[in-house]
Amino acid sequence: MASPIQSFMAQGAQMFLVLLVAPAVAGITRKVKARLTRRQGPPVVQCYRDLLKLIRKDSVLAGNASWFFRTAPYLIFAFTWVAAALVPTFASGLMFNWAADVVALIALIGAARALLALAAMDVGTSFGGIGSSREMMIASLAEPASMLVMLTVALAAGTTRLPEVAQFLISQPLEIRVSFALAFVALVMVAIAENARIPVDNPATHLELTMVHEAMVLEYSGRHLAMIEAASYLKLVLYFSLVICLFVPFGMAPLHGEPIAWAIGLAAYLTKLTLAAMALGVWEVSIAKMRVFRVSEFLGSAFIFSFLAILLAFLSREVLR
Amino acid sequence: MSMEWPLFILAAALAVYAGAVLLAVSLPRPALGAVYPLCILAALAACAADIWVLAGQGAFQATLPLGLPTVGLRFRLDSLSAFFGLIVNLGIATSSLYGTGIGRAELSKRIEPFYPAFCAAMNLVLLADDAFGFLFFWELMSLSSWALVVSNHEDEENRKAAYVYLIMAAMGTTALLFAFGGMASPAGAAGGLAGQAGGYAFDAIRDHKLTPLVSGLVLVAALFGTGSKAGLMPLHAWLPLAHPAAPSHVSALMSGVMTKVAIYGIIRIVFDLLGTPAWWWSLPFIILGAATAVGGLLYAVQDRDLKRVLAYSTIENIGIVFAGLGLAIAFKATGIVNAAAVAMAAALLHSLNHSWFKSLLFLGAGAVLHATGRRDMESLGGLIHHMPQTAFYWLVGALSISALPPLNGFVSEWLLFQAVLAGPGFPEPILRFLSPVVAAMLALAAGLAAACFVRAFGTVFLGRPRSTEAAEAHEVPAVQRAAMGILAVLCILGGLFGGFSAWAIGPLLKTLAGTELAGLANGPTRLSLIAFTQGRSIYDAPTIALFVALSAIATMLVVHFISNRGTRRSPAWDCGFPDASPATQYSASSFSQPLRRVYRGIVLGSVEVLEMPPPGDLRPGRFAVRYRDHAWRNLYRRPAVALLFLAGRFNAFQFLTIRRYLVLMFSTLIALLIIMAVWM
């Protein structure tokens, strides 16, 4: 076990690290998209400026918004932040890693989502309802798929705790497993859907009947909107970190790492994160958004992939007692 | 006849229930409310006795010279009875507290006399220690709850619901009769007819060794009997009819508590009376349980009636419990006891947790019904403004039932996923194959549950009121809010202290599954929930809750420090075209439309009818959504129609002449003799 001070520092560093890099990751994706479509695009730091601007502005509430509408953004942000802080990024000796395993992690994301979907219905507009209803439809397929992916990896590692899973994967020789490949594809598809990315949803759209996430947050403004935007940046980083932690954890500092190991881990993590953000940008410009009812086919196949993955994991030789 | 003080307390509690029945029969109508304080008193006393037994793991017995001649009426209070007794009596206490707030105009000789009888019957089923007593009290429970379902008999729907319930209850009891008959017969005997004197006491039943065929038949009969009461698919169709028909505090008892008595029944039979389990016993549990978990929600997510949504969601939760029990049987039979303990803990804790949040949600639905007179979600909305406390408690219940941390529904869900992960250890390939299927179904059910309750809470409590009744709603009396508040606190505490609950049922797990959750003892904190070992799986709700709360508060403080804290009110934005009519909001039906489209392949019964008049026609366009319960159509209606058809045909025999009757009797005699001659 790492010393308490060290793991506390790792935990604290991680919490602020994810918070710090989250807007930049969204900014990089945006920049890459813009450059690929021959536009200049906003600078990478624009997301930070937007957040600061939003926080400083007045919050305009609809006439019949209830207490729930005003409380929800902070809770959504907190749930997402805690979930993001629990995924090992650059080091695995985090202080509170033991408090929640992957099953709890998926449920924490689910809690943030349920609160957002409820908040969307509070004002009682048609757009809020449309976003909320579609979000829950997407979640009803995405959540089981991500749960099955987590269970697949947990089966192979013999534990549902993320740091142990990452350690196990680092210690394994590099080989392609069919169940992991399927789980990886499924998790990426889920991550795209969960983060309201093309082809499931378009983060840049407004005033369209196709929007999901943007429809839910339509009534929010000022600091409340800032919280929700920050939460969605964090969610993107969370899913990137999850994919990195489960499928390419190489370079991560071990439980009782030296400062140099931490530095290597940090560098590796930031590189992987940047690459992932750029890959997302390339992906988004190379594909068209699909109709909302095609989403069920997209996520249905993610669910099938994850089911096949866990089936293979159960029937193959990696038995745990 | 030996009797210890926990049994004395329970006997006293039962006497209070009986006294409440007599009081309700004799009192004038406006004074009937006196029943409820008595029930609270009895339930709290019984809770104390149950907790004592649960902590001390003793078993107490008593025999009364009633019932079957040589058996007597036996009672026994062990940790299993005590655990379910705690569920039952906590549910009774909160429902009765809600009942004390019922207005005088709503008291009725059709409700209050039966209510304590129902409470007593549920307690007695848990205490019965012989087959006769069990079946007698089971039937008493069915009939008293039937009387409560039919209490509002002016409504055609309610009469139908009560009729279906009566038939299902009778069939269930008949099935249980066969189950006990089969178990009471000594080894080698053909079936239920050969029970010797004394064979019907549970002690004697435990000693019987059954052949695999008989135990299989008993299992089927027991599953039918208890499954029909609990709402296991496809025996569930009465439940969404009958549970909403009763007064709301009775709905809470029926859905939250009575289904648990059925769970108790199947646990008592399978884990205690029927002997050493075989692995194939688990198959019907796992398959039906997983199918029920998803199926119940697919209906719940479509229905417009708030109480029916809750009833369908009860079916889902019963499915989860049965899946957990199935896994526990499978693990126990294949010798993986630590996983059996995890699965069993999941099933037991989910029973407890479900009794809390389902009672809470039904009481909340009752409060909404009382405040607005409506159960149809399409005519509600915006109640968070007029009923803030009820809304908050309902929100806690809705988040709990959606299995979201750090509330209690997630604790049992988490344990169940951990149990599934031990699935690769099964020696039988079919169980290894079924484990991921269960995982997939449970994950699907969890996702759908969140959709279902976001829809329910969002439509009923959020948004703008869709009717004048909803706009003029008022908060319910303080005692009723207190009843919901207590349950909400229980949901939160149950979520935070899941590790404690799992530890507290340790002795019970030892008797049922063979071991307790050993990992609990050496966690980082005493409140951590650990399924196997600390290194393998852990969930620490207090830390997570503290973490989330601190992050939320810190964020709020920082944001408020940076920002100007200005807040303005203005009309809703709605993309620039806000519409004043509340009808433009998303309704419950429109909310479930995407889900209907996605799952149309599974829920084929869902039909959308669009009626669009041609241009120039002034009639309004109409859109209607209907869905049909497949089980209702194929397993209830069609056999019922066939039965009635046959009965109509046989009706001709009623009007024969005496000569023809004599010929019939004579030919029957001849036919029987021929059969005898061939058979022997």
Key words describing this protein structure:
heterodimer, A: 321 residues, 11 helices, 69% helix, B: mainly alpha, two-stranded antiparallel ribbon, 26 helices
Give an overview in words.
The complex is a heterodimer of chains A (321) and B (680). In chain A, α9 (222-247) packs across α10 (259-285). The mean pLDDT of chain A is 86. With 321 residues, chain A is mainly alpha-helical. Chain A has helices spanning 4-36, 46-56, 67-86, 102-122, 126-157, 162-171, 178-194, 213-216, 222-247, 259-285, 295-315; one strand at residues 59-62. Chain A is built from eleven helices and one strand, in the order ααβααααααααα. In chain B, α3 (79-99) packs antiparallel against α19 (478-496). Chain B has four domains: 1-186 and 232-247, no CATH class; 276-560, no CATH class; 594-628, no CATH class; 631-679. The radius of gyration of chain B is 27 Å and the shape is globular. In chain B, a hairpin with an 8-residue loop joins β1 (60-64) and β2. Chain B is mostly helical and 680 residues long. The interface between A and B is large, with 94 and 94 residues.
Task: Provide a quick synopsis of the model.
With 321 residues, chain A is mainly α. Chain A contains 11 helices and 1 strand.
- Give the class of chain A from helix and strand content and strand pairing: mainly alpha
Count the beta strands of chain A: 1
Global mean pLDDT of chain A? 86
The residue fraction in helices of chain B comes out at: 55-70%
Shape of chain B: globular
Oligomer: heterodimer
**In DSSP terms, counting alpha (H) and pi (I) runs of 4 or more, how many helices of chain B?**
26
The proportion of strand residues of chain A reads under 5%
| Number of distinct helices of chain A | 11
Could you list the spans of chain B in which at least 5 consecutive residues all have pLDDT below 50? 188-195
Largest two-chain interface: A-B, 94 and 94 residues
* Radius of gyration of chain B (Å): 27 Å
H/E element sequence of chain A: HHEHHHHHHHHH
Total beta-strand segments of chain B: 5
Give the CA-CA distance, first to last residue of chain B: 48 Å
